[in-house]
């Protein structure tokens, strides 16, 4: 059993805690924490919270989901958005929900969803001019949202509905961390930002309710994600998802499956534009497998370098950059006694950029995910998709989508950075992404 050290992060301000470094440069702040111990005390506003910075500790917190339950500032806010869905529900409700959701993420289902990914990606790539300049995140966000929306509801979903969902999420998510740091009394005040946030949530729930009701009326069975969720209601035992739960799962999948994928793709393109030698390797793989055409589901297994690029991107820039747990009973962590209701902060960056876990942790090195090198990493060194029973249910979906998009882009384009980028993370964004990343996508000549 390892011996762990504990410490306190310096620089907390009265009332604000570590809000300022988290706002100004979250990656640097989080990466600095291991220097103070394996378990570090920080302040979220006025609240005391503990950040595990050692792979074993972080893994322990994630896998003991009975003691370290969903809750704390992040998940309390997430519940306002996604209700009691599979990502936000407490341990006591989770196993049943996960069991009922799992068939929707079965390998055969993913294969069916991939048709949507292929179609949307190929259409986007075909829409670009010879030297298209794009602001990467909004373009990739729109792609990921259309993909996840059409995966959920295969039948035609109006462009207007996609746009409504986009706008509601934008407003709801943009206030997410601000709300999280606010004392509850301030959150209830009729401030314009609070009113906007509440209105966006109401709008989002109304839109999803409308879609689910219409879907039920028109009949399910289209092979899409929602039809799998509805089919749980017909199984023996009668413990299928209720209509209210299905609505929560729809908001959950929309929320968890869009920004994460868009942020990963955005950071991946940024890293590739800065590392031309790695971009050339990706292009060579895409050329050999695709011969210039867009990628398809069956190609994924033959695109291992693209998959390593995705993993390395999530290591360096985990989209889920900060979320919380709350202790359901008194427990001990790193030799420290934590009373019930203590907030524990999960920030994969604390481990992903830790020298003890990785050699040259700041380097973009996709080959560290070659099987023999990855096997030598300490347990718990990679937590970009979480761990244990609450591990990401959409990890294969997300990685497949990122591989398809990256390989399709590499097959037809060379990505260059252009002036005007601001790659500092958006302050307190719900998911970690750059502020602005214009890229030039030059059509590749004949090979
Ligand atoms: C690169 C893309 C993605 C990343 C980095 C990512 C990351 C994560 C992380 C870190 C968690 C664990 C959160 C926690 O322990 O509190 C998680 C959970 C989850 N993710 Fe993902 N995710 C990605 C894509 C997706 C996609 C595409 C979907 C759905 C289509 C999805 C759906 C979910 C759900 C439903 C959960 C909750 C699982 C549970 O508690 O049982 N994710 N994700």
From TrEMBL:
<keyword id="KW-0479">Metal-binding</keyword>
<dbReference type="InterPro" id="IPR001128">
    <property type="entry name" value="Cyt_P450"/>
</dbReference>
<feature type="binding site" description="axial binding residue">
    <location>
        <position position="392"/>
    </location>
    <ligand>
        <name>heme</name>
    </ligand>
</feature>
<dbReference type="Pfam" id="PF00067">
    <property type="entry name" value="p450"/>
</dbReference>
<dbReference type="InterPro" id="IPR036396">
    <property type="entry name" value="Cyt_P450_sf"/>
</dbReference>
<protein>
    <submittedName>
        <fullName>Cytochrome P450</fullName>
    </submittedName>
</protein>
<keyword id="KW-0349">Heme</keyword>
<dbReference type="InterPro" id="IPR002401">
    <property type="entry name" value="Cyt_P450_E_grp-I"/>
</dbReference>
<comment type="similarity">
    <text>Belongs to the cytochrome P450 family.</text>
</comment>
<dbReference type="GO" id="GO:0016705">
    <property type="term" value="F:oxidoreductase activity, acting on paired donors, with incorporation or reduction of molecular oxygen"/>
</dbReference>
<keyword id="KW-0503">Monooxygenase</keyword>
<dbReference type="GO" id="GO:0004497">
    <property type="term" value="F:monooxygenase activity"/>
</dbReference>
<dbReference type="InterPro" id="IPR017972">
    <property type="entry name" value="Cyt_P450_CS"/>
</dbReference>
<keyword id="KW-0408">Iron</keyword>
<keyword id="KW-0560">Oxidoreductase</keyword>
<dbReference type="GO" id="GO:0020037">
    <property type="term" value="F:heme binding"/>
</dbReference>
<dbReference type="GO" id="GO:0005506">
    <property type="term" value="F:iron ion binding"/>
</dbReference>
<dbReference type="InterPro" id="IPR050196">
    <property type="entry name" value="Cytochrome_P450_Monoox"/>
</dbReference>
């Amino acid at each position: 059993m390892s011996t762990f050290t504990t410490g306190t992060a310096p620089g907390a301000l009265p009332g604000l805690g570590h809000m300022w470094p988290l706002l100004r440069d979250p990656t640097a702040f989080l990466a600095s924490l291991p220097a103070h111990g394996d378990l570090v005390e920080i302040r979220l506003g006025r609240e005391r919270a503990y950040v595990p910075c050692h792979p074993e500790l972080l893994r322990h917190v994630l896998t003991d989901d009975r003691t370290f339950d969903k809750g704390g500032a992040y998940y309390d806010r997430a519940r306002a958005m996604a209700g009691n869905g599979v990502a936000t529900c407490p341990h006591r409700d989770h196993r049943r929900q996960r069991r009922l959701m799992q068939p929707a993420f079965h390998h055969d289902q993913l294969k069916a969803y991939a048709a949507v990914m292929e179609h949307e990606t190929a259409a986007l790539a075909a829409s670009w001019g010879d030297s298209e300049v794009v602001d990467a995140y909004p373009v990739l966000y729109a792609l990921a949202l259309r993909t996840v929306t059409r995966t959920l509801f295969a039948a035609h979903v109006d462009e207007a509905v996609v746009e409504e969902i986009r706008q509601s999420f934008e407003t709801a998510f943009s206030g997410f961390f601000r709300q999280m740091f606010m004392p509850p009394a301030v959150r209830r005040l009729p401030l314009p930002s609070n009113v906007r946030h509440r209105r966006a949530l109401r709008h989002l729930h109304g839109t999803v309710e409308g879609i689910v009701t219409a879907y039920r009326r028109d009949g399910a069975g289209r092979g899409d994600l929602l039809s799998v969720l509805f089919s749980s209601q017909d199984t023996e035992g009668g413990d299928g998802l209720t209509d209210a739960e299905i609505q929560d799962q729809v908001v959950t999948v929309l929320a968890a499956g869009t920004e994460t994928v868009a942020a990963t793709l955005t950071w991946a393109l940024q890293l590739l534009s800065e590392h031309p030698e790695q971009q050339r390797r990706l292009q060579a793989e895409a050329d050999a497998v695709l011969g210039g055409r867009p990628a398809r589901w069956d190609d994924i297994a033959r695109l291992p370098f693209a998959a390593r690029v995705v993993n390395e991107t999530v290591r360096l820039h985990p989209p889920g950059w900060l979320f919380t747990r709350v202790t359901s009973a008194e427990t001990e962590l790193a030799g420290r006694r934590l009373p019930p209701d203590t907030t524990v902060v999960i920030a994969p960056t604390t481990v992903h950029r830790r020298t003890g876990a990785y050699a040259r942790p700041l380097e973009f090195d996709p080959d560290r995910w070659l099987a023999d090198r990855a096997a030598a990493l300490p347990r718990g060194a990679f937590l970009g998709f979480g761990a244990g029973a609450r591990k990401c249910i959409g990890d294969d979906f997300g990685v497949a989508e990122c591989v398809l998009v990256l390989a399709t882009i590499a097959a037809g384009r060379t990505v260059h950075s252009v002036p005007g980028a601001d790659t500092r993370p958006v302050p307190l964004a719900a998911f970690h992404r750059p502020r602005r990343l214009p890229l030039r996508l030059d059509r590749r000549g004949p090979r």
